[in-house]
Specification:
434 Repressor (Amino-terminal Domain), DUF5753, 7 strands, Helix-turn-helix protein, 13% strand, Cro/C1-type_HTH, alpha/beta, Lambda_DNA-bd_dom_sf, 7-stranded mixed β-sheet, Endonuclease, Chain A
């Protein structure tokens, strides 16, 4: 049976290490709680070995990881396949949320919708829910998840760089929101852009960027995993780990970066249209 891909292995060890640290437990203390050796815990956290399905469920309970994350990691531990998370779209979201907290250089491109990390709750209700036909429960679940991601990434203290290109349509289509919510969304985007390690630009012309995608590069981060690209099409989303393909996406977004417009410059030029 094949081993998990490097990115999948990274998800296991990083979720485990982060949850352990959050509970203020040393590897030795966690080992004592679980009734295993300290070396076993250390092996898990460096991907030398992988917990079993049952072990992962037990670890999740002890570390307060929540049912969804515990099941996500337990399924990986059970299957031990060279999957790269695309079999279950929700796994992509969980993996990306963790990557946002560890990778040194993150690039995002969105053509039509405001990137999730920038969305306010009213965007989910007034734009995503009618566009995607979601129920109230699904909408609230998505908004809660994004809010949690936003709160966690704001706590990052290590050096990293977030570079985002939005298609102009992302902003023009805010017209479907009420005036107050529209202003709130634009101000939220501005606030993110004002962070010292963030820069948001707008593509307001022809480009070869294509469908939405992200690129995650380790940079100088000591806790990042392998470089990868996350790509979306209509019926599928997946994480690409082949280095040559990742480099292709990275070069594409960097080339278009120089052709995109600074956020504040775009907002100033289009202030009447976006009012």
């Amino acid at each position: 049976m094949a081993d998990p891909s490097p990115l999948t292995s990274w998800n296991i060890r990083t979720h485990l290490a982060d949850a352990r640290i959050k509970q203020n437990l040393t590897p030795k203390r966690l080992a004592g709680i679980l009734g295993i050796s300290e070396q076993t815990v250390r092996n898990w956290e460096k991907s030398a070995t992988i917990p079993t399905y049952a072990e992962m469920i037990g670890i999740g309970k002890e570390l307060g990881m929540g049912e969804e994350i515990s099941q996500f990691l337990a399924n990986i531990a059970r299957d031990k396949l060279s999957l790269n998370l695309e079999n279950v779209p929700r796994y992509n979201a969980l993996g990306l949320a963790k990557a946002e907290l560890h990778y040194g250089s993150i690039w995002k491109y969105e053509s039509n919708l405001v990137p999730g990390i920038l969305q306010i709750r009213e965007y989910d209700k007034q734009v995503l829910q009618p566009t995607e036909g979601m129920t109230d429960e699904e909408t609230e679940f998505g908004a809660d998840f994004k809010q949690e991601r936003q709160e966690e990434i704001k706590l990052r203290s290590d050096p990293y760089r977030m570079s985002i290109i939005m298609g102009a349509t992302c902003l023009y289509d805010l017209k479907v929101m009420g005036a107050a919510a529209r202003r709130e969304q634009i101000e939220a985007i501005r606030e993110w852009n004002s962070l010292p390690n963030w820069e948001i630009r707008v593509m307001n012309g022809p480009s070869n960027l294509g469908n939405p995608f992200d690129v995650y590069v380790p940079g100088k981060s000591k806790t990042a995993g392998p470089p990868f690209a996350y790509v979306e099409i209509h019926d599928r989303s997946w994480c690409i780990e082949e280095l040559e393909r990742v480099e292709g996406y990275h070069e594409r977004i960097k080339r278009n970066w120089t052709r995109s417009t600074y956020l504040e410059e775009f907002l100033d030029a289009e202030r009447n249209r976006l009012a």
